[in-house]
Design brief:
Rossmann fold; Arc Repressor Mutant, subunit A; two-stranded antiparallel sheet; 6-stranded mixed sheet; alpha/beta
Length: 204
Amino acid sequence: MIAIRKRFFKPGKESRALSILEGVHACSRVSQSELGHKAGLSGAMVNKYVRELQDAGVLTLTPVNGKAYAYGLTPDGEQTRRNLLGQFCAEIVQIYSALKESVRAKIEPLREEGLLSLALFGASETCEVVLAALEGTPFRVVAIADNDPAKHGQSFRGHVVVPPQLLEKIPCQAVIITSFGRQDEIYEQLTALAVTKNLQIVRL
C-alpha cells in the first residue's frame, strides 16, 4: 500500500488513487475502511475516489452478499496502477538521489582537509543513506557507533555497531552524526571527545 503522510510530502489526488488501486491489487476483498486506513482517507473520501475510479473505467465492484463487495481492476485499471506506481517510484528515486548529493556536499570540506577516516554515529536509515553517498568516494568508514545497547555487536551494512565510548580508541578523523532526529543531542555528547581527539563533528 502506497501512503506517505509526512509534513513535506502531502498526498495528492494521484497518490491517493494509487493507494486505493494498490490496495485492491493486493486484496480484492479489502474493505473500504481498510482502504481508508492504509491510504489515510476518511470513509467519505474513499467512497468519492471509488466512484471516480469506477466512472473512469479502472475499478469494478461486485456484490458478494448484502453487506460486502469485491473490488477488481479492469485492464485499464491495471495499466493505470502500473503507470502511477512507476511515476511514484521514479520520484522517490529522484528524492533519494538528491539526498545523497546533499550529504556529499555536506562532507566535501572533510575531503578538502584530508580528513578521510570517518566514524558514523547512529545506526539508522539515515546512516544507510550516508553509506550509499560515500560509495565511490575516498572516504573510509572505520566505525559505526550508536547509543542503543541493543544494537551493539550487531552487523549494520558490513560494519559492527560499537558503543560510543569505543570511539576514543578508534583511529577516525571525523564523526558524522547520522541521526536526523537527535543531531543536537549527539553533538553535545561528542563535544568532549572532539576536543580530546581533535575530531571534526559533522551535523547533516
